[in-house]
């Protein structure tokens, strides 16, 4: 997947010789590391490789523009040798692109490999369909011909030699012919009105005649031409296998209708059509039969509507078709994954208001936002590292956005979920989690000596333990040791240049390179030890039968799959130690070959799924025992196909079972980690797609694996649609995701885009799963492994909450079924959960926290499994966990009655005063006074003892603190119950005053609202009395430490109260300490 980093870069363009009527770049295309830009009056050709340099240009003079019109439409031939341009006056210009022998020297000792380019005009002629009333669509082409659509609904074919064929219209199969016989039905299930609904129509040629062609999309691999008409109709047309020349073979196979479609883009590899609409949304269609709407993505959920962004202006797919960029007419662009995760967006998120809309008042805060005026054109480079975009109405510059790739988990490069790496064109962005609980990203720059000659980075693979990285560019291979932060490279550069890496795997301490031999057009596997990259240390060279599609490794076994679907499994036997001091020998033998005939799409990734006996032998022995015993258990593998289908393949008989679809990536977790603290060993694999994260567990029986969606387990585990999962930390039980952040600075024109790692725990899902399967010992062992991990208490709380919430839901669903026998399964699960959490000191906090999150009407069910509330309170009280004990007071009041809760609260009040926990004591005082009044008047309403009030009296709040004076709290007119509270407070005040603990006294009075004035009047000649001025000044000065600000504030507080009761001795002493003469 793709994530932007750094600042957008600017590529300046030259201005034309003469002014033009429309100020807009008309064409942007990238082929073979060359970027073509066509403006109304000139053409520029840039290098899009490591160095962005203009290699050539062609400028039309003023006479040519006036005579033949401005450049209006353009297309570049697939071989990058010719450029065709149609002008506003219906002239066809064909240019030839030719490299010269003038080589560019960028700097340094090595040549850049760049040559200057000449662009020359070969042909200029008037087109035969010239008509001022006609408008033209964009142009599509193959190596022989061009095709464009016209506003009269017809099409024009032109050869690259400038030869024109007669115009034609596309052919439609008649109704009932078998091609389009299904009835029309609605595909779009969103909130649009009936007239805006997206429908699949039966073939209707007449409907196309009343509208004109506005866009063409051509896919030669699919032999598919997509035609978009002005009324929103989309024609999916078949094309002859030899190309566009055979116009009679261009037939409509299917019609799609969307009344507000304005642009479209086709992903050939995944067979997905993206359709942009006037309302700013993008609809994704699966073109495999039957054609269906996959989903709709838009910025609606982020608070932006069509008034903010305008209609969709352009859609550009990444080279691997796993993501697409969307540009809007009025403002900004965004990049989305196929599953609907927003990976990047230039529009600053400010909330749900549209005050930042370009249609509204200009806002100074948004002047640095890229593409604030809208996006007209976009183009990805061939590696997906750069997204080039043109701002609406601009001919002065190109904006280049830099991307890193991650989590593709596809092809013939191995991956590990333990080490999360984003790889960019010249660096690696590595997620670090060892130093602290917080995740951070470090930029790891590749050695200049390597990347300058082998740009860009093409393959990255992390070792199984995540401590070594293998990185391959255009040639060669380098290794990085994350422990010692050192690079290892080839000592002989000629050996490095002979390697064209097409894939990387780690086989223990061995790096496996899939090498392409250019001279013979063959592929081979090279086995290098990680301690030495040199031909002399090469362990084995294994020729392959052809180009591999996907590869995988497990222990000493390598899986290689060729087209169409031939699976080969090799066993690696190593004799001798893998060390520089020895001469190890590696032998490769084929243990299984499988050829499968299937009509399904090609595999994008395959991973071994070890059976339980293999997993147990690996865990016990730490390595493979014997070739025969292990190969018997390598019976299955997981297949992810290019269309997102996930299936399980039996390697014994070739049987394939579909598991799910719409999957983008997956991680096989069973037997993949050598760490003893692996928290996800019980999970077979996890996958991510449109449904979010899904977890799969092994289950006995015919269905060997079952699926549980994270969303079904816990609503909180639904991944944010701005966070894309990057990998797992098995020893922490968390999923690591990545999201985009923007930081703005006044000294730069554009913001900096920063990938931000996010962690989301899955521990409570794993614990719940084990408890559901009656694996109490395993769940306890798993919990002990993670007891020291961050957020462990939070995981336990969510575990108990989800189990208890499920019990409440079950009770509600069975309310009207009282005649049915009551199931005890959920109750037993609740009891098992409480039994598990009871083994940890967080138990008391977890139980009362869950109670606070649920309705008090269900507390009896919770504490029937967790234990009596008074017993839990007593345990907390004895352990001096007074804060937690206070949380149980309201639960006791609800379940045991107000008398018991008041007794517990009085005990706790005395204890908190003894420990000087005055804030907690103050909350207890307010609770006691309120509950005492309610108890006396027999108005103990259970609704007043709600979780909301629990939070009110346990935690700091914005409620106004009640005063103990006036009618509501006068201690003079209260009952014996309140008198006991008064006695406790006065006793503690006397204790503090006797010891002259004045700072504590001030804190005590402020927290409990104790009536200090009344107390001082009564104790004037008691414990508050000062013997004489000298001793009082010395004692109070020692107690208050007047050098600190807080002590001076405490003295001011006491002085104000002493003045109110006219306590002269104290007034003089405090005024002296404060050096105040006016008292």
TrEMBL record:
What range(s) does the RIC1 C-terminal alpha solenoid region domain occupy? 764-939
Chief localisation class: membrane
Answer yes or no on keyword Membrane. yes
Matches recorded under Pfam families: Beta-prop_RIC1_2nd, RIC1
Q: Which GO terms describe its biological process?
A: intracellular protein transport; retrograde transport, endosome to Golgi
Does this UniProt record's set of keywords contain Kinase?
no
Which Gene Ontology cellular component terms are annotated?
cytosol; Golgi membrane; Ric1-Rgp1 guanyl-nucleotide exchange factor complex
Q: Where in the cell is it found?
A: Membrane
**What is the name of the protein in this document?**
RIC1 C-terminal alpha solenoid region domain-containing protein
Q: Which organism is it from?
A: Kingdonia uniflora
Phylogenetic lineage = Eukaryota, Viridiplantae, Streptophyta, Embryophyta, Tracheophyta
């Amino acid at each position: 997947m793709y994530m932007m980093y750094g600042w957008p870069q600017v590529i300046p363009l030259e201005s034309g010789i003469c002014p033009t009527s429309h100020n807009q770049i008309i064409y942007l295309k990238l082929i073979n590391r060359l970027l073509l830009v066509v403006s109304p009056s000139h053409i520029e050709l840039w290098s899009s490789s490591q160095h962005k340099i203009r290699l050539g240009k062609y400028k039309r003079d003023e006479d040519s523009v006036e005579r033949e019109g401005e450049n209006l439409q353009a297309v570049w031939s697939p071989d990058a040798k010719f450029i065709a341009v149609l002008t506003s006056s219906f002239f066809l210009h064909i240019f030839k692109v030719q490299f010269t022998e003038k080589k560019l020297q960028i700097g340094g000792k090595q040549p850049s490999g760049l040559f200057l380019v000449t662009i020359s005009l070969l042909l200029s002629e008037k087109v035969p369909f010239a008509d001022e009333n006609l408008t033209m669509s964009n142009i599509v082409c193959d190596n022989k011909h061009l095709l464009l659509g016209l506003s009269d609904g017809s099409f024009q074919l032109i050869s690259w030699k400038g030869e024109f064929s007669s115009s034609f219209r596309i052919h439609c199969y008649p109704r009932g012919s078998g091609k389009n016989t299904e009835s029309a039905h609605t595909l779009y299930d969103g909130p649009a009105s009936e007239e805006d609904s997206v429908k699949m129509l039966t073939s209707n040629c007449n409907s196309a005649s009343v509208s004109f062609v506005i866009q063409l999309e051509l896919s030669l691999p699919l032999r598919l031409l997509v035609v978009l008409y002005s009324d929103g109709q989309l024609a999916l047309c078949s094309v002859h296998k030899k190309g566009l020349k055979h116009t009679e073979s261009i037939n409509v196979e299917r019609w799609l209708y969307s009344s507000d479609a304005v642009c479209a883009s086709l992903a050939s590899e995944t067979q997905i059509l993206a359709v942009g609409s006037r309302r700013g949304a993008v609809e994704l269609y699966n073109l495999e039969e039957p054609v269906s709407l996959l989903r709709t993505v838009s910025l609606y959920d982020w608070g932006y509507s069509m008034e903010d962004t305008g209609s969709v202006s352009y859609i550009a797919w990444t080279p691997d078709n796993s993501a697409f960029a969307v540009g809007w007419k009025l403002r900004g662009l965004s990049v989305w994954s196929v599953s609907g995760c927003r990976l990047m967006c230039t529009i600053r998120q400010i909330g749900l208001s549209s005050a930042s809309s370009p249609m509204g008042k200009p806002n100074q805060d948004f002047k640095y936002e890229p593409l604030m005026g809208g996006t007209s054109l976009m183009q990805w480079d061939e590696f997906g590292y750069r997204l080039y975009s043109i701002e609406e109405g601009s001919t002065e510059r190109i904006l280049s956005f830099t991307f890193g790739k991650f989590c593709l988990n596809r092809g013939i490069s191995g991956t590990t979920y333990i080490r999360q790496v984003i790889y960019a064109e010249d660096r690696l962005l590595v997620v670090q989690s060892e130093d602290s609980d917080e995740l951070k990203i470090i930029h790891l720059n590749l050695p200049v000596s390597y990347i300058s000659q082998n740009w860009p980075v093409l393959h990255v693979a992390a070792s199984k333990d995540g401590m070594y990285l293998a990185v391959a560019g255009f040639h060669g291979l380098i290794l990085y040791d994350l422990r010692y932060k050192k690079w290892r490279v080839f000592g002989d550069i000629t050996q490095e240049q002979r390697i064209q890496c097409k894939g990387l795997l780690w086989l223990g301490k061995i790096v496996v390179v899939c090498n392409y031999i250019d001279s013979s057009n063959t592929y081979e596997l090279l086995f290098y030890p990680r301690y030495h990259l040199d031909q002399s240390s090469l362990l084995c060279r294994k020729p392959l039968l052809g180009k591999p599609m996907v590869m995988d490794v497990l222990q000493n076994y390598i899986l290689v799959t060729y087209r169409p679907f031939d699976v080969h499994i090799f066993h690696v036997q190593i004799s001798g130690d893998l060390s520089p001091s020895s001469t190890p020998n590696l032998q490769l033998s084929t243990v299984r070959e499988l050829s499968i005939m299937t009509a399904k799409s090609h595999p994008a990734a395959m991973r071994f799924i070890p059976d339980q006996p293999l997993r147990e032998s690996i865990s016990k022995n730490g390595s493979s025992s014997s070739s025969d015993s292990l190969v018997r258990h390598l019976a299955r593998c997981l297949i992810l196909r290019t269309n997102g289908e996930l299936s399980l393949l039996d390697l014994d008989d070739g049987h394939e079972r579909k598991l799910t679809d719409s999957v983008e990536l997956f991680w096989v977790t069973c037997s993949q980690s050598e760490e003893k603290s692996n928290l996800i060993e019980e999970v077979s694999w996890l996958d991510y797609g449109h449904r979010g994260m899904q977890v799969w567990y092994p289950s006995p029986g015919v269905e060997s694996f079952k699926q549980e969606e994270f969303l079904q387990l816990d609503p909180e585990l639904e991944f944010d649609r701005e966070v894309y999962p990057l990998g797992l930390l098995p020893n922490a039980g968390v999923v690591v995701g990545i999201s985009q952040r923007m930081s703005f600075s006044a000294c730069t024109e554009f913001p900096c885009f920063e990938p931000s790692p996010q962690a989301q725990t899955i521990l409570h899902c794993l614990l719940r799963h084990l408890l559901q399967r009656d694996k109490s010992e395993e769940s306890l062992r798993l919990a002990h492994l993670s007891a020291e991990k961050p957020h462990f208490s939070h995981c336990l709380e969510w575990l108990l909450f989800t189990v208890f919430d499920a019990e409440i839901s079950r009770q509600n669903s069975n309310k009207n079924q009282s005649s049915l026998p009551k199931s005890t399964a959920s109750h037993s699960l609740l009891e098992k959960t409480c039994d598990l959490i009871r083994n940890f000191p967080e138990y008391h906090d977890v139980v009362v926290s869950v109670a606070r999150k649920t309705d008090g009407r269900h507390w009896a069910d919770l504490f029937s499994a967790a234990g009596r509330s008074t017993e839990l309170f007593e345990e907390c009280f004895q352990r001096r966990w007074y804060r937690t004990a206070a949380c149980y007071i309201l639960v006791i009041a609800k379940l045991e009655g107000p008398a018991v809760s008041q007794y517990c609260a009085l005990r706790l009040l005395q204890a908190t005063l003894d420990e000087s926990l005055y804030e907690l004591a103050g909350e207890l005082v307010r609770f006691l006074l309120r509950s005492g009044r309610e108890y006396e008047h027999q108005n103990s309403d259970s609704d007043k003892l709600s979780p909301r009030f629990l939070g009110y009296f346990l935690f700091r709040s914005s409620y106004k603190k009640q005063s103990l004076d006036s009618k509501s709290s006068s201690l003079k007119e209260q009952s014996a119950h309140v008198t006991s509270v008064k006695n406790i407070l006065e006793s503690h005040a006397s204790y503090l005053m006797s010891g002259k603990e004045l700072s504590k006294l001030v804190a005590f009075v402020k927290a409990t609202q104790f009536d200090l004035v009344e107390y001082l009047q009564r104790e004037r000649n008691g414990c508050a009395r000062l013997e004489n001025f000298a001793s009082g000044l010395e004692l109070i000065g020692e107690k208050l430490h007047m050098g600190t600000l807080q002590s001076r504030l405490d003295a001011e507080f006491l002085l104000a109260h002493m003045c109110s009761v006219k306590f002269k001795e104290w007034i003089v002493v405090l005024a002296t300490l404060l050096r105040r003469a006016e008292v």
